[in-house]
Amino acid sequence: MADDRPLRGERRSEPRCPDCGVTGMEHIISRESIERSRARQPWFSVVHCDACGHVYDVISKHVFTIEAPPRFTLPRQSESSSGER
Ligand SMILES: [Zn+2]
Asked: Which residue of 25, 39, 78, 85 shows the fewest CB atoms closer than 10 Å?
């Protein structure tokens, strides 16, 4: 296991907390909101540092629930299928 790659201070794969300086994914914890929608889905989840509590990001989960799948209408296909008979 020879790792010759020099460490350039920061490793990209290891996120670092800007507040307390702790590094590593294991220190980044996501917590779901206590309040939930009727579908028992958490409204959002908070991504925070487990060492100091610094909040990295708030992900609104509810958005994903509302978001409808993209509708693709292929004009050619629908035209030919409706026109050809
Ligand atoms: Zn921190």
From this structure: 85
